[in-house]
Recover the amino acids of this structure.
């Protein structure tokens, strides 16, 4: 039949239904996005190019837009709530793609019976953050559905930003060269393990707190001094630091070597990960980013990161090498090595 | 971090490796029979550190991997019942049965819930008196006591809608079957957690009857390397015996309370191991006192005819005859996202370990 979209093979897993893994941020999400959404939605290959915030031009002005939905369970956790994620997450997506966040929209899907007082807390958090960061929420929508049709409160936010003249390259990372260093902006896994502990009823509130934080000020300080030295930036959300690195190396002639010794992880997070058998490299963060930068600028970038509370604990975790192209290699403490692959399957769904 | 870092200390690792290299002369093959060891060996790259005289093999140590496909089909049939809640450990839900998996059934509306502790599933049974809660009881000596506890609790509190579909297994008969099949191994790296329950005496037949070393090992790099060193010592001096490297955790007699609970609830039966076949007295079934909690006897289901996918060599891998990379399906048709065999599904399976860390 003319005009009909031909059937495509888009998942190598079972094709009949959506599984939770399709939302994990790992291999299966990737396949769904590439094979279904991007294929159908992308009218022009240059559009939808960036995983974080996509570039587009209106009247000669380079803009970036991103959208994200938040379904975290529980809605309130140590260090924030769904509203904190909905504002920070979207603003961070703009910031790491080298854009100056300018405005947000938000859509609420609420479950019948949801306490108004909880909604007020969430909205107050969002309003306070948006005001503090100077990024107004300029449009919104509310839907209420029958009890049981959603879990309390889901939020979608869309962010629009102006692309910095000097930083359009950082989201693709195609200027990375051999010898560049890989920097992580703080200890990994705090957010994911906070949520996981809350979900499993492990009371570790005195030791664990989500890292969710707006990264724009820190990124802006780095780019103001080092726009050309920063070759790539990405916030390490679902799928964690390992997945960000794996996404970057894909189809490239370069690879990444990470040093196990240098990976910053809090003792509390490491302890719970050991108990639950989880690798912190794959645990979600909401206020951490991976930066690939010129090695000559690494120390200066680190000291800028260290001057911000959300950059405390930032460290150089690896280098860009060409020995194993398209691969991420982890060099263990005692000199053996292993490959890191993209997260496969969900370590825990509904983390953000 | 205490209890972790000292067992990953670089200097000690180097010292152990150099000692192993110094004394290892004769080529040997050591088999581990615990999924935890499989993962640790690959995660820390232990084989890379060893001299070429020592070959490490993975045996049937992953409970999910050795679970018969008919059992999975039975679990799927239960999940299709609208009045059944299937309670399971997480790893099982992806294992492919003849035409489906529990994960697939769940995405189509089946009530399949993941538990860390079986006792929590008894609470779910209490909260859902109109439903039948069936716990999928798989695993070796380590997990059996927790399932036994849940059955005792359900029995004592008259929770009549709590059932167990038991495919519990005992390790030593499988270790014996491997040797009886003439698979050449010189030593066993014995499972630390199993031993913490059953004690170390259960391995005495291996050195005595078969001349095979048996070292009970912990799970950190230094534990494993020290166990390898102990095995090499034994074999080079031709004095195989049972030794306990994991003595900070494993008592020689094991956990007597847990043993008592297990023998109250279960009795040994012949059972089928995926890849190995029927092994006499290697499984556990519920004693007749607890008959009301046996899923097979109380819930009638239609189990679909068995259909085994062709090409998968899980069986040979489980017996240490082949490596995952020898399988034509490995990383082509069979991947972590789309597993064909159980060895790829389970986080403790040999194929998963190769897929994640080595390919």
């Amino acid at each position: 039949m003319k005009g009909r979209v031909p059937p495509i093979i888009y998942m190598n897993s079972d094709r009949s239904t959506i599984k939770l893994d399709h939302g994990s941020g790992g291999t299966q999400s990737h396949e769904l996005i590439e094979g279904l959404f991007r294929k159908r939605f992308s009218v022009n290959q240059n559009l939808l190019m960036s995983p974080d915030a996509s570039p587009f031009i209106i009247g000669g002005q380079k803009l970036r837009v991103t959208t994200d939905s938040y379904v975290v369970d529980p809605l309130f956790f140590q260090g924030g709530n769904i509203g904190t994620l909905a504002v920070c997450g979207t603003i961070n997506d703009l910031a790491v793609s080298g854009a100056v966040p300018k405005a947000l929209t938000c859509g609420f899907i609420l479950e019948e019976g949801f306490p108004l007082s909880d909604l007020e807390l969430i909205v107050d958090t969002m309003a306070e953050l948006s005001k503090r960061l100077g990024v107004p929420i300029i449009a919104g929508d509310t839907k209420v559905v029958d009890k049981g049709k959603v879990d309390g409160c889901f939020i979608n936010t869309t962010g629009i930003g102006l692309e910095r003249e000097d930083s359009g390259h950082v989201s693709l990372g195609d200027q990375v060269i051999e010898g560049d260093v890989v920097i992580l902006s703080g200890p990994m896994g705090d957010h994911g393990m906070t949520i996981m502990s809350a979900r499993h009823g492990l009371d570790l509130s005195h030791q664990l707190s989500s890292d969710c934080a707006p990264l724009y000020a820190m990124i802006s300080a780095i780019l103001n001094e080092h726009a050309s030295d920063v070759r790539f930036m990405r916030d390490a959300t679902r799928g964690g630091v390992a997945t960000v690195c794996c996404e970057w190396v894909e189809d490239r002639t370069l690879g990444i070597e990470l040093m196990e010794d240098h990976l910053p992880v809090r003792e509390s997070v490491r302890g719970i990960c050991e108990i639950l058998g989880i690798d912190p490299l794959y645990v979600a963060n909401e206020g951490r980013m991976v930066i690939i930068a010129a090695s000559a600028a690494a120390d200066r970038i680190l000291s800028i990161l260290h001057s911000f509370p959300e950059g405390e604990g930032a460290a150089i975790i690896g280098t860009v090498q060409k020995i194993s192209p398209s691969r991420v290699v982890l060099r263990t403490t005692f000199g053996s090595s292993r490959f890191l692959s993209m997260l496969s399957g969900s370590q825990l769904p509904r983390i953000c | 971090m205490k209890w972790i870092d000292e067992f990953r200390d670089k200097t000690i690792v180097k010292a152990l490796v150099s000692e192993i290299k110094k004394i290892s002369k004769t080529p040997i093959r050591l088999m581990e029979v615990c999924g935890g060891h499989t993962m640790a060996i690959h995660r820390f790259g232990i084989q890379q550190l060893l001299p070429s005289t020592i070959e490490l093999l993975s045996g049937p140590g992953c409970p999910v991997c050795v679970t018969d496909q008919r059992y999975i089909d039975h679990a799927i049939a239960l999940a299709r019942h609208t009045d059944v809640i299937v309670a399971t450990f997480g790893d099982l839900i992806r294992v492919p049965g003849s035409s489906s998996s529990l994960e697939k059934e769940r995405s189509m509306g089946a009530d399949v819930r993941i538990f860390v502790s079986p006792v929590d599933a008894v609470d779910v049974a209490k909260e859902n008196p109109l439903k039948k809660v069936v716990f999928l009881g798989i695993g070796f000596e380590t997990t059996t006591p927790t399932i036994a506890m849940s059955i005792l609790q359900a029995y004592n509190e008259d929770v009549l809608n709590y059932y167990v579909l038991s495919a519990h297994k005992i390790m030593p008969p499988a270790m014996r079957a491997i040797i009886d099949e003439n698979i050449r191994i010189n030593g066993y790296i014995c499972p630390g957690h199993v031993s913490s329950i059953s004690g170390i005496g259960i391995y005495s037949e291996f050195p005595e009857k078969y001349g095979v070393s048996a070292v009970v090992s912990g799970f950190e790099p230094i534990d494993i390397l020290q166990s390898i060193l102990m095995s090499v010592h034994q074999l080079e001096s031709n004095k195989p015996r049972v030794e306990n490297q994991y003595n900070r955790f494993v008592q020689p007699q094991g956990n007597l309370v847990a043993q008592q609970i297990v023998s109250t609830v279960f009795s040994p039966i012949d059972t089928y191991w995926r890849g190995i076949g029927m092994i006499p007295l290697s499984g556990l079934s519920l004693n007749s006192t607890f008959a009301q909690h046996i899923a097979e006897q109380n819930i009638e289901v239609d189990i679909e005819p068995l259909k085994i996918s062709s090409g998968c060599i899980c069986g040979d891998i489980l017996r240490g005859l082949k490596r995952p990379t020898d399988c034509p399906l490995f990383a082509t048709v069979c991947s972590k996202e789309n597993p064909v065999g159980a060895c790829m599904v389970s986080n403790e399976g040999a194929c998963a370990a190769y897929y994640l860390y080595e390919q």
Remarks:
- Residues 314-357 of chain B form one domain.
